Amino acid sequence: MDSLTQIVLGAAMGEVVAGKKIGNKAMLWGAVAGTIPDLDVFVGPILGWTEEANLAFHRGISHSILFAILVPLLLAWYTSWLYGNEHHKKTGVKLATAIGGILFLIFCGFILNFIGFQIAGSFPILFTTISSLLIIILCVFLYKSIVLHQQADVNISYGRWYLLFFLAVFTHPILDSCTGYGTQLFQPFSDMRVAWNNISVADPLYTAPFLLCIILAATRGKYNKWRVVFTYAGIIYSLLYLGFTIRNKYIVDQVFRASLEKNEVKYSRHMTTPTILNNILWHCIAEGPDEYYDGQYSLLDRKKEVELHVIKKNEQLIVYPEDERIKILKWFSDDYFNVLQLDGDTIQINDLRYGPFIPGDSDNPNNYIFPFKLYPDNETGTYVLKDQSGPPEDGTMQEFWDRLINRIKGI
């Protein structure tokens, strides 16, 4: 899921393991550990990898079970050394820690505002003001508690440190596996991508209450009973919400299968996944021999049926099917893809797990959420990635958000 959610989850794990012993330091280290797997997005750009190589690497080894077992060994050794030798009491370390924490909070603030922007289509002044004031207050609180106050002794065993880091790192890929992107839990032994498709990669109704609970817990003393109450309230809410998403997926699956049977569609497999920022409106896709059947279903729809739209595969447009880039894109999309012919010999491969912006307009190359444009290099017999486009920059995005909100409402 998004980085903010993983930060909150990691902080909660840190608090559960060591909150009573070291207070907010447990949350901080849990948040840091919960962020570590997603640092893989910086590896490709630093090493100059191709876009498709970055896609293959993200949510790979850093999101594996093996990584969650081994990396906490190093992290636990470092924190044992840091606190065991009282380096955390030195002025330079305190300043560096405070600066790092403040930058971390500012990063969280940017994510909050980004979510608000995506929901509303513009930065709501009230939302931006409240979130900015909250970040400023937390920054001041962090600076005072770390730099101006005397740091207490930290007496935690290596085993407890390891448990803290293991839970913070391990829960990251498990939560990611609930999304549709796919997580390579079994690297380096298998590149199988686990995707349960029950929650969006960003869902404010999951993250915001959980975040509020953790913030409230952090403002209480480490022995305060309400700190425990708020922490476990956030964790229980997160688990209940995940249960809610699984229940929703079951309902949508039933409706989609019934719609396919009603229309006498012959299909080999199907997939349902929630659309962005919510768990009410779902994207549905089924694979036929030469086409896909695509549609959306809102749990608020009056008619318990998915309106189906045909999307042609057009796989024959790929002139070099054995090209490594093509293989990676097919693997990345879990073979849910179609091909469009663009100008000249350029083709566009669309990842259909996320579907089009507007169902029913399958021939429009600007109508796809996750497109890849490639052209063939006839001298080498391979494809060159021309563009891995994001959302179009014309009025389509505003139309998309307006339609998304209406479809969530069942309109």
Nearest-angstrom radius of gyration?
Answer: 23 Å
Tell me the number of helical segments per DSSP (H or I, 4 or more residues long). 12
Structural class given helices, strands, pairing?
Answer: alpha+beta
What does the average pLDDT come to? 90
Strand order of the largest sheet: 1-2-3-4
Largest sheet: 4 strands, antiparallel
> What is the total domain count?
3
- Low-confidence segments: none
Order of helices and strands: HHHHHHHHHHEEEEHEEEEH
- Percent in strands: 5-15%
Shape: globular
- Give the termini separation: 28 Å
Give the strand tally.
8
In which range does the helix fraction lie?
40-55%
Walk me through the topology:
Layout: H1 3-22, H2 24-35, H3 43-47, H4 51-57, H5 65-84, H6 91-120, H7 125-148, H8 158-176, H9 204-218, H10 225-262, E1 269-274, E2 281-287, E3 291-298, E4 309-312, H11 324-332, E5 337-341, E6 347-351, E7 371-377, E8 382-387, H12 396-408
Antiparallel strand pairs: 1-2, 2-3, 3-4, 5-6, 6-7, 7-8
